[in-house]
Amino acid sequence: MDSNELLAWSVAVAALAFIVMCGFIIALLRTARESLMTAQVALKEVTATVEGLRGEVGKLAVSVNDVAADVKHKLRSTDPLFHAVHDVGDMLSELTGTAREAAHSLTKTVRRQAAASEESAGPVPKWLRWAAIGSRVVSGILKGKELGVKSPYPQAKEGL
Hints:
The chain is mostly helical. Helix content is 87%, strand content 0%. The chain starts with a helix and ends in a 13-residue tail after the last helix.
């Protein structure tokens, strides 16, 4: 083989390799085009879905804002009620304090009268004896509550 034949075979092999390479590149480009077409279709579907969701999210946001405004309005409308309940609680607290002071004063007065009548030699009226007993019972109950003593008799439960 001379050098011209060797050169001819080399050119033929190079040309064949170039043709094979061009075939693979064409196949690769076709596959890439199909993939890009599929991606384009998927992108269009995603875009359509996102647009649909955007509309739904907008409607949902408006609905949530309406509900929040309604709840806020209803909560504000209950403010006077809670202020009234607070005022009633203050009034009941004052009334309870006043009743407690009156009961304490009455108990002291009854005890003083009972002690004064015990000191005097005269007969003690029955009402005063009962008042003294009642005073002792009430003070015993109050002391028991202050000390945290439980009642020896359980309270009846409703609905039995």
